[in-house]
Amino acid sequence: MNSAVLVLNQNYEPLNICNVRRAIVLVFDGKAEILESYDQSMHSASRAFSLPAVIRMVYLIHRPRPRVKLTRREVFIRDHFTCQYCGRQSNDLTIDHVIPKSRGGPHSWDNLVSACKACNHRKGGKLLGETRMTLRTPPHEPRAGAYYTIERRIDGSIADAWEKFLPGFTPIGRTGSLSHRMSHSAN
């Protein structure tokens, strides 16, 4: 009963991932239909039910486009794990406020960049105009890709039954490839 179920909107857009119990409730309430099932089944007193792998809502759910959460990891992903001052790629980065907090700089997408420890220390609490440092790319808020809401709920690989409903999706592990996310966050 702990298997993950892919939830699609009426237009087949990925909405969410839920557990089997929630998926079965949605199906029995007439709110969703089963598109794909796992090879396992669940038994009640009088019936056996295939465990759903993919369900589709029978009505369209209107939702606002998700926004990427402002976290350290998302800043690193936006900046391709690259120091925005010297261009060095690394997994050992820090976050730098372009306009330092001590000078009234906000904690926002437009003021945060990835920086290696050496560049962050060199810049310190100074403004860019007070240093000989320049930004490689101006900071901005990334757009959430088509799979943003579900890729944060996936650990490891996806079920085979999901693949045809997630074209072009490559699951991103904790240290995996970022090419898919980066190609969609630029949209």
Topology:
Blueprint (H helix, E strand, L loop, with lengths): L3 E5 L5 E6 H9 L3 E12 L4 E10 L14 H7 L14 E5 L14 E5 H7 L24 H4 L27 H7 L2
Give a written overview of the molecule.
Helices cover about 20% and strands about 25% of the residues. It has about 190 residues and is an alpha+beta fold. The protein folds into two domains: about 100 residues, no CATH class; about 60 residues, DNA Binding (I), subunit A (Orthogonal Bundle). The strands form two sheets. Strands 2-1-4-3 form a four-stranded mixed β-sheet, covered by helices on one side. A two-stranded antiparallel sheet has the order 5-6. β3 and β4 form a beta hairpin.
What labels would you give this structure?
187 residues; alpha+beta; DNA Binding (I), subunit A; 2 domains; four-stranded mixed beta sheet; elongated
Quick recap:
This protein has 187 residues and is α+β, with helices and mostly antiparallel strands.
Radius of gyration: 22 Å
Strand order of the largest sheet: 2-1-4-3
Quick one: biggest sheet? 4 strands, mixed
The geometry reads as elongated
The assigned structural class equals alpha+beta
* Helix and strand pattern: EEHEEHEEHHH
Name the average pLDDT.
Answer: 84
Regions with pLDDT < 50 over 5+ consecutive residues?
173-187
What is the CA–CA distance across the termini?
A: 36 Å
Number of helices: 5
How many separate structural domains?
Answer: 2
Instruction: Tell me the total number of β-strands.
Output: 6
Residue share in helix: 10-25%
Q: What percentage of the residues does DSSP assign to strands (E)?
A: 15-25%
